[in-house]
Design goal:
The complex is a heterotetramer of chains A (528), B (315), C (293) and D (493). With 293 residues, chain C is an all-alpha fold. Chain C contains 10 helices and no strands. In chain C, helix 8 packs antiparallel against helix 10. The longest helix of chain C has 37 residues. Chain C starts with 14 loop residues before the first helix and ends in an 8-residue tail after the last helix. By secondary structure, chain D is an alpha+beta fold. Among the domains of chain D are: 110 residues, Dipeptide-binding Protein, domain 1, CATH 3.90.76; 203 residues, Dipeptide-binding Protein, domain 3 (Roll), CATH 3.10.105.10. Helices cover 27% and strands 23% of the residues of chain D. In chain D, helix 8 packs antiparallel against helix 10. Classes of the chains: A alpha/beta (528), B mainly alpha (315), C mainly alpha (293), D alpha+beta (493). Chains in contact: A-B, A-C, B-C, B-D, C-D. The interface between A and C is medium-sized, with 29 and 22 residues.
Chain lengths: 528, 315, 293, 493
């Protein structure tokens, strides 16, 4: 008998249909992965099981958990079930814990809510649960507060809360999306271990095919509130039926075609760059400390080259990016673009700046919502001494928009009228408009769904061919770097630990950290 | 935490120094000569000069400022021109009315606002919520002196449940004194309670939509439990800020209400001192109030740390 | 009351939809209607009032509402309706200009502080704000009017000064979130300086915040003006003002309640209208916060 | 506080509205608007001081009676020498100050010499200007020598500024006054109240009350409310005449309307153009409708006056007809004077309601004849500084409450800056004249002169309105001087 059986589930919020005819089941000890892009309804399916739906939600169909028909239970009965029979882990570990209560307290609460035990007893069991998620008390006392822990450690606390009562079902909603790749690998391993140890069933929700395919026994693919494909893993990947799932898989492994014409002249030369920040004084009259974010980094980017810069959060890649863009002055070393320093004296060098542009990660925060597309796209003209006006300006806008696959008429629209992918195209158009030689792509595709991401990668490859652009591709996502760059740099704690041709770095990593990174990255099963 | 406290203390001291200069200069340019006021219309020039000398009004600006600040630092607030009693003593007496009144009003406002705000937030969108919000909307909009006037007419003149004003003195009995502070406290508390209830509600709604409340619900806590055990304490920070602001406002801000109920409190003292050009009282009391506000804010900030461990562990 | 977050700001550029939503918001429509009534009354009073408010007619003093004087007459026989109309003018003008002063000084200061976040300048501006906040506002208003004499202008200054830190803080906190935005970074990459970015990118995106806060400060300004003129420190006779009407009617409240009732209601309804409108605007600009505060 | 509260307080409970009847009440609470700045009547002009201490705590050689007559005080009798230059006062025997020290001739010498000394802070130094010598003949006799004969000398000695103080207690007089009166100072809660208690060793007729509390309630509304709520038993100089019909109609209260020495005038700056032209001043006088002011500002309480003299004084001449309400005439006079209309002038108004309300009415009346009076409401401090001393005003309204003060018109530097040599000579003559008939004639003449010159616009005599509980008896109905003499006050059986 299934532990969880969802049959013909329909869900509406207000008048909006969210789920249609969703059926799936989880057996004890089984890991079921639910995959879908944003808006596919995968999280809402999980919340329906927990019955933690937003106001105005109406569910029809049946959801049976361990013999209980969830949809007909009263609220107190549901409370008795939640945390006890079914635990849940959430996406954002930074905010999932109450900031003002200690971790021991929060884990113990799960126990206290459901069982009549003393506070000491509950704390003892909380200690055990924390030890199980590899937060032993000697290093992580129960009195710690969430803000004293890293993201990965907090996620472990959330997991400890979810499994404290050894529930039969664990629901993990994008449990690693907000984490670095190495941390992600550890958390996934932990989850798998716990499931196997306790014989729990797990419903694992993710947008990342690779993450789920590594772990799941069965896979459910969802799109716009419907299940399009179900099957055992990894067999399913070789026998996909629905066109959507096929294209999704293809997009996940998509490698754009690129013709590489790298010249031997360095376009960007970074030598011995150092950048440190002051940290607050430890004592009132003590010296302020210093944190070295970038510790003597050197590399070249050749004309026409696509160079990757890989590293986890906090490794200094953002600082380095800002230094290259001339937004911050460096304390040591030199950054030259086409032989000229980006900083002359203490002010950024306009002549150099106009040769490079940048595309940011967040398609929603990259544009002033009050300006129209034409004004947004023209912003870099500020760098020109004689910016084009009138007809010439119109022509430039039109050219930039069409070259990224938009139409000239789009210039009159406001940014909110575009989707995430289209916005990223506009961001690229903005970068192209002054015909730079180098474009920095700062996590430029990380926030996009896989299919859109594939399209943007194609666009980038095209543009580089068309305009002879060089790219500096900054990302934490190894799979993306692997398909779009010629050479790549691996950065850790302010230093470049390894660099070389991309394929070589990936297939034969030299530095232990690189090896760790590559091993941690989830892989899709080889396609038949 | 210590470093944080010390830096805050330092900036507190700088603020006070700047405030003292501002106040002194403002009071200095106040037109009207206290000596003339004291001696009246038929006073002769030599008598006036003698009195001014006596009051120490003839020194240079700088020396008067220094002696004022120096005096305050040693607890000597000078002597009132009009009453000829030490300002510190007068403030001490007035504080025995203003402080209890402020506390009374604040207690009332908190006792009304907390349940109302929590109730409205927990029943968001319901008739109860709309009702509470409507009443608070009125409470914010009603001029409190007008409300005080209406209360006097109803409760003092017509029903004669309360005296129309005045203060019998604590030595005449605690309950009697509290009774005489009741109408003023209600008048002061009404708008404050309305504001506080609204802040409580909105802050609680904010926290209720936080992820950790959802986590708590996933643990099996009921809505109610999640609200009381997780949301409430987190929602308190903005509420504490408002309470701090309100307390310092109530301490001085009762001027108009103290006038309506002829309570001899601090606010009324300032008002009278300004009209009587009792400069030393004005200076010292305004300075004290500024100090009180800054000190209360400081305490509020420190009290955040009690609520929030993130602040307790050195920022 | 005022925790609007800049990053929740909706895009503009959809005026039709905004109007549609505006008309559906109960509090906005009610608030705007109330406010409009008083603004209209104030405007009409420039051209016409039922009676001359400076004319004294002792023979007709303290008459209750009648066909001749819908709201009755005061102790000098003046028509209360006419006085409330002219009084609206004073209240609204004082509060409006005081908000203007607060914005004119506060917004640039806030923008400046945010642009130089963490610098000495930021520290000075913010500490200065704290300091102004620390002064008991009514006492300072009394001092100002005691120094410069009571008048509507001095009431404006007294209220306006205390609006400055409100707007400075709001602008700064709103601007700080905006400075984190990638579009600001993009503008910096495009070589734009802090001043230019503040004007082009920050200011337009804090206007919603400012409008909402402005409405609230407006209503507080009306209350403050009423309080000041109640203690005799606002507009001087013969110009009628709501606060002074209340003060003058106080001793007569027990036998001529209409004299205190109508000006009090005028204050109450105007402030209520503005507050409702502020709430409505907040919801309108920021649907995520609908129903909050 | 009242007895009602004391009992409730003793009971320790919150009995709302309980009104406990008492066999015989022996204390009283008096409300008044102004709080005295301190309690030394000999070094300040503030009427509020006299209001509390006059005849209650301090006594002078002579004293005013309720009708304004001058009678014996500490001096039981006095003789005047033939030439009118020497006064011999015979003091009451066995008089003790509240601190137990004896009051004798030396104290009188001390008091008078202190008041007339070079460095004296006495606000009415002029009262003592004529004294050349004060001698204690024996313990109970004092001889005062004057430079000129002065028939009004006993009158001058009745003023609150001339009370007898003791050298032993003079240092603390401002906060703990020690006098010889029927009441002794007990307690002062600044900003709220002053409490007096009965002097058990009073030399004369003992007070009928055990305790008197003066409560300071400046706000007219609060004054009304405090009376209505019976927080106070008597309100002296009740500031809101509009409430009197209510008190009249309420059997719990009675209203006493008496006279004061307060000539309420629209003072005119005689040196400021165009008011230096008598025609313009006359125009102002004719533009004003006194009855409307009395009705509008005072709700009917007040006697119109046409010159600066109290109507209840036998020497008063009714000159109101000379400045009757006649706006047409006013306009004509303004035209004759060649004034360009509208004429904008500054009118400062001190806090009392007669001034604030009267000012608004006068401004409206003046507007009818083309004079735009710009109202400036000021506090007393600003009024004294700007208007009175600085003479920076055109018009102002104030009530002159000192008795027999027509002589201020002889002071060219006084704030209305009226400078008439003939009038000054006339006043000088009055000062030295001791024949009552001649004095009377000259006073009438003086009234006519200032009325003819339209120095100021004379409005009305300020009434003394006292609101009291029905059972309170023995209150002064009139105010010949500012005083709340409580010595004879008692509750009806």
């Amino acid at each position: 008998m299934s532990l969880l059986r969802i049959e013909k589930l329909d869900l509406d919020i207000g008048k909006r249909p969210i789920l249609r005819d969703v059926s799936l089941s989880v057996d004890p000890g089984q890991i079921v992965g639910v995959i879908g892009e944003s808006g596919s309804g995968k999280s809402m399916t999980a919340f329906t099981v927990m019955q933690l739906l937003p106001e105005g939600a109406v569910a029809r169909g049946s959801v049976t958990l361990d013999g209980h028909d969830i949809l007909t239970l009263s609220e107190p009965e549901l409370c008795a079930l939640r945390g006890n029979k079914v635990g849940m882990v959430f996406q954002e570990p930074m905010t999932a814990l109450n900031p003002i209560r200690s971790i021991g307290d929060q884990v113990a609460e799960t126990i206290l809510i459901h069982e009549r035990v003393s506070k000491t007893e509950a704390l003892n069991r909380a200690r055990e649960a924390l030890a199980r998620v590899e937060l032993p008390e000697d290093r992580f006392p129960l009195t710690r507060y969430p803000h004293e822990l890293s993201g990965g450690q907090r996620q472990r606390v959330v997991i400890a809360m979810a499994i404290a009562l050894r529930p039969k079902l664990l629901i993990a909603d994008e449990p690693t999306t907000a984490l670095d790749v190495t941390t992600q690998a550890q958390i996934l391993k932990l989850l798998e271990r716990l499931v196997r140890e306790d014989g729990m069933g797990m419903l694992m929700i993710s947008h990342d095919l690779a993450v789920v395919s590594d772990l799941a026994d069965e896979i459910v693919i969802m799109r716009s509130g419907e299940v399009v494909e179900r099957g055992p893993c990894p067999v399913i990947f070789s026998a996909l039926q629905h066109p959507y799932s096929i294209s999704l898989l293809a997009a996940s492994t998509h490698a754009p075609d690129r013709s590489v014409q790298v010249e031997d002249t360095p376009l960007l030369r970074v030598s011995e760059v150092r950048r440190s920040y002051r940290t607050p004084r430890k004592t009132l009259f003590g010296k302020p400390g210093a944190f070295e974010a970038v510790k003597g980094v050197s590399f070249d980017l050749k004309k026409g080259e696509s160079l990757g810069l890989v590293g986890e959060s906090g490794c200094g890649k953002s600082t380095l990016t800002r230094a290259i863009l001339g937004l911050e002055e460096v304390q040591g070393g030199e950054i030259l673009l086409a032989g000229e320093p980006v900083f002359t004296g203490h002010s950024p060098n306009r002549d150099v700046r106009r040769k490079m542009q940048v595309v940011f990660q967040d398609p929603y925060g990259s544009f002033n919502p009050r300006h129209r597309v034409d004004r947004l796209v023209c912003e870099p003209f500020h760098l020109l001494d004689t910016p084009p006006t009138g007809k010439a300006r119109d022509r430039a806008i039109e050219e930039a928009l069409t070259s990224v696959g938009l139409t000239a008429a789009d210039r009159y629209k406001y940014i909110h009228e575009f989707s995430g992918g289209q916005r990223q195209r506009i961001a690229i158009a903005r970068a192209l408009i002054i015909k730079p030689e180098l474009i920095l792509l700062d996590e430029a595709v990380s926030a996009l769904d896989v299919q859109v991401r594939a399209q943007i990668l194609d666009l980038l490859a095209d543009l580089s061919d068309q305009f002879g652009l060089s790219y500096l591709f900054i990302s934490h996502d190894l799979s993306v770097v692997r398909v779009i760059t010629d050479r790549c740099l691996v950065m850790k704690a302010g230093e470049i630990v390894e660099q070389g041709p991309t394929e070589q770095v990936f297939s034969n990593p030299q530095h232990p950290y690189t090896r760790e990174l590559i091993a941690a990255a989830p892989d899709l099963p080889e396609l038949a | 935490m210590l470093r944080y406290t010390l830096t805050r203390l330092l900036s507190l001291a700088v603020s006070l120094a700047v405030a003292s200069v501002v106040i002194f200069m403002a009071v200095e340019i106040l037109p009207g000569d206290p000596a003339t006021l004291m001696l009246g219309v038929n006073a002769q020039e030599d008598t006036l000069a003698a009195l001014r000398e006596q009051l120490g009004l003839n020194g240079s600006l700088w020396s008067r400022y220094l002696s004022w600040v120096g005096g305050m630092l040693t607890g000597d607030f000078g002597t009132s021109y009009t009453y000829r009693t030490p300002v510190a003593e007068m403030v001490g007496e007035r504080l025995w009315i203003s402080l209890p009144l402020a506390i009374y009003a604040l207690t009332l406002s908190t006792l009304i606002a907390f349940p109302a705000g929590i109730w409205a937030a927990s029943k968001r969108g319901s008739a109860a919520d709309v009702g509470v919000m409507g009443v608070t909307q009125l409470g914010v909009a009603i001029p409190n002196f007008w409300f005080a006037m209406l209360m006097v007419v109803v409760f003092a003149i017509n029903l004669r449940w309360f005296s129309a004003g005045g203060f019998p003195g604590w030595d005449k009995g605690f309950w009697l004194s509290m009774k005489s502070l009741t109408l003023p406290a209600i008048a002061l508390a009404l708008p404050q309670a309305s504001i506080l209830a609204r802040v409580m509600r909105s802050s609680l709604l904010d926290t209720l939509s936080e992820d950790f409340v959802r986590t708590a619900r996933a643990k099996g806590l009921s809505k109610r439990q999640a609200l009381w055990r997780h949301a409430l304490r987190n929602a308190l920070i903005p509420v504490l800020t408002i309470i701090g602001l309100q307390f310092s406002f109530l301490l001085a801000g009762g001027i108009i209400i103290e006038n309506v109920f002829y309570l001899p409190g601090l606010g009324r003292m300032i008002f009278q001192a300004v009209s009587a050009r009792d400069l030393i009282v004005v200076e010292s009391v305004v300075m004290l109030l500024v100090f009180a506000v800054i000190a209360v804010n400081f305490l509020v900030e420190i009290s955040y740390a009690l609520v929030d461990p993130r602040l307790r562990h050195g920022r | 009351m005022t925790d609007l977050r800049a990053d929740h700001l909706p895009p503009s550029g959809a005026p039709v939809r905004l109007w549609g939503r505006a008309l559906k918001s109960r509090s906005l429509v009610l608030g705007a209607a109330l406010t409009l009534i008083f603004v209209l009354a104030a405007l009409v009073s420039f051209l016409w009032t039922p009676f001359d408010v400076t004319g004294i007619d002792i023979a007709n003093k303290i008459k209750g509402p009648s066909a001749r004087n819908p709201l009755g007459t005061d102790h000098f026989g003046r028509d209360i309706l006419s006085m409330i109309m002219v009084g609206a003018r004073v209240s609204i003008a004082v509060a409006f200009v005081a908000v203007g002063i607060g914005m004119a000084f506060g917004v640039p200061l806030g923008l400046w502080a945010a642009a130089r976040k963490g610098s000495l300048l930021d520290e000075v501006i913010m500490r200065g704000n704290d300091l102004v906040f620390a002064f008991p506002s009514l006492v300072i208003a009394i001092l100002i009017t005691a120094i410069f004499g009571p008048s509507a202008v001095n009431a404006i200054v007294a209220i306006g000064i205390f609006n400055i830190p409100v707007f400075a803080r709001l602008t700064r906190s709103g601007a700080l979130t905006l400075w984190q935005k990638d579009y600001v970074l993009a503008a910096r990459v495009a070589g734009k300086g802090a001043a230019r970015i503040s004007v082009e990118h920050i200011l337009p995106n804090v206007t919603n915040l400012l409008i909402v806060q402005g409405t609230i400060q407006f209503s507080l300004g009306i209350l403050a003006e009423a309080g000041l003129s109640y203690v005799g420190l606002g507009a001087q006779p013969p110009t009628p003002s709501w606060g002074r009407m209340l003060a003058e009617s106080q001793t007569m409240i027990s036998f001529a309640p209409h004299m205190a009732l109508f000006p009090g209601l005028a204050i109450l309804l105007t402030v209520l209208g503005l507050n409702l409108m502020g709430d409505g605007l907040r919801d309108l600009f920021d649907p995520k916060l609908r129903g909050r505060s | 506080m009242t007895n009602r509260f004391t009992t409730v307080g003793l009971a320790g409970g919150l009995i709302f509205g309980a009104s406990v009847a008492f066999a015989q009440q022996a204390d009283i609470t008096i409300g008044q608007q102004l709080e005295p700045p301190h309690l030394d009547p000999t070094s300040a002009a503030a009427g509020a001081i006299d209001q509390v201490v006059y005849s209650n705590i301090f006594e002078g050689l002579t004293r005013f009676g309720p009708d304004g007559s001058v009678g014996p005080g500490l001096a039981r009798s006095w003789d005047v020498s033939e030439d009118g230059l020497t006064y011999t006062f015979h003091l009451a025997e066995g008089v003790k100050f509240h601190d137990g020290t004896t009051m004798d001739a030396e104290d009188v010498v001390f008091s008078l010499n202190r008041a007339r000394a070079e460095d004296s802070a006495n606000a009415q130094k002029a009262l003592f200007a004529g004294i050349t010598d004060v001698v204690a003949t024996d313990a109970a006799t004092v001889t005062v020598t004057l430079s000129n004969p002065d028939g009004a000398f006993p009158f001058k000695m009745a003023w609150g500024d001339a009370v007898i103080v003791a050298p032993e207690s003079i240092d603390g007089i401002k906060t703990t006054p020690i006098g010889t009166g029927a009441f002794m100072f007990d307690n002062w809660v600044e900003g709220d109240r002053i409490e007096l208690k009965k002097n058990p060793e009073y030399w004369g007729e003992p007070a009928m009350l055990d305790a008197v509390t003066f409560k300071f309630i400046s706000d007219p509304t609060a004054a009304f409310a405090s009376m209505m709520a019976e927080d106070v038993d008597v309100f002296a100089a009740f500031p809101a005449p509009e409430n009197l019909p209510q008190f009249d109609a309420d059997p719990r209260f009675k209203v006493l309307v008496g006279s004061t020495e307060g000539e309420t005038i629209l003072a005119i700056n005689n040196k400021q153009a165009p008011f230096d032209n008598v025609k313009v001043r006359e125009a102002v006088a004719h533009a004003i409708n006194r009855q409307e002011i009395i009705d509008g500002a005072q709700f009917g309480y007040g006697t119109p006056i046409g010159t600066h003299f109290a109507p209840h004084n036998p020497d008063y001449v009714d000159l109101t007809g000379q400045s009757g309400y006649d706006p047409e005439k006013a306009k004509m006079l303004l035209e004759e004077a060649g004034v360009t209309l509208p004429l904008k002038v500054k009118m400062t108004l001190p806090p009392p309601s007669y001034a604030r309300r009267g000012g608004e009415i006068i401004a409206a009346q003046l507007r009818q004849v083309g004079i735009e009076a710009q109202i400036e409401n000021v506090e007393w401090a600003q009024w004294l500084e700007g208007t009175f001393r600085g003479k920076d005003y055109a018009l102002t309204i104030v009530s002159h409450t000192e008795p027999m003060d027509i002589n201020i018109y002889a002071r060219p530097d006084y704030y209305f800056q009226y400078d008439n040599a003939d009038f000054q000579a006339l006043i000088a003559k009055i000062d030295v004249e001791s024949d009552p008939a001649a004095r009377s004639e000259m006073f009438k003449q003086a009234q006519q002169v200032i009325a003819d010159d339209y120095v100021n616009a004379y409005l009305f005599q300020l009434p003394l309105i006292t609101v009291a509980k029905a059972g309170v008896e023995g209150l002064w109905e009139n105010a010949p001087t500012q005083a709340a003499d409580m010595t004879a006050v008692h509750w009806a059986e």
